[in-house]
Amino acid sequence: MPLDLPDQPLVHEELSKQVIGAAMEVLNSLKPGLDERLYENALVIELRERGLQIEQQRSFPVDYKGTNTGTLIPDLIVDGRVIVDAKVVTAFNDSHIAQMTGYLAITGLRLAILLNFKSAKLEWKRVVK
Q1: What radius of gyration do the chain's Cα atoms show?
Q2: Domain boundaries, the chain
Q3: pLDDT 10s digits, 13-37
Q4: Does an H or E element contain 44, and which?
């Protein structure tokens, strides 16, 4: 699963800007280092105030060879187009990217945004399908 490439148009560029701006607002208000769930819940409030549709903890069935193997539950789906996952980690790593790759495969969406609330400066990473 590639990250965005500089010579290609960004997938859901305007929506991404709205999500990242909302996350910055949340981080500036709550400050860094809290539990991921607190940022997720605050982000839901901020995104809804900005007029976006949010599905929090929506369940997606996972099938393998026609048999249900369980359920995938991403943090947020924004406007039915973007997965948003709040983290509080030292740095993003390959397992975070792999997780978003799996989420995109199961949900059929094209973009996931990882948000890191660990430091005073918001970090984010876009993962595209």
Answers
A1: 14
A2: 13-128
A3: 899 999 999 999 999 999 998 999 9
A4: helix 36-49
Distances (CA, A) of 129 to 2, 79, 116, 126: 7, 17, 21, 10
Question: For residue 42, what are its two tokens?
Answer: 């605050």
Question: Rounded distance, CA 60 to CA 70, Å?
Answer: 9
CATH of 13-128, one of 3.90.190.20, 3.90.320.10, 3.40.109.10, 3.40.50.300: 3.90.320.10
Q: What is the pLDDT of residues 70-124, one digit of tens each?
A: 999 999 999 999 999 999 999 999 999 999 999 999 999 999 999 999 999 999 9
Phi, psi of 3 (to 5 degrees): -80, 170
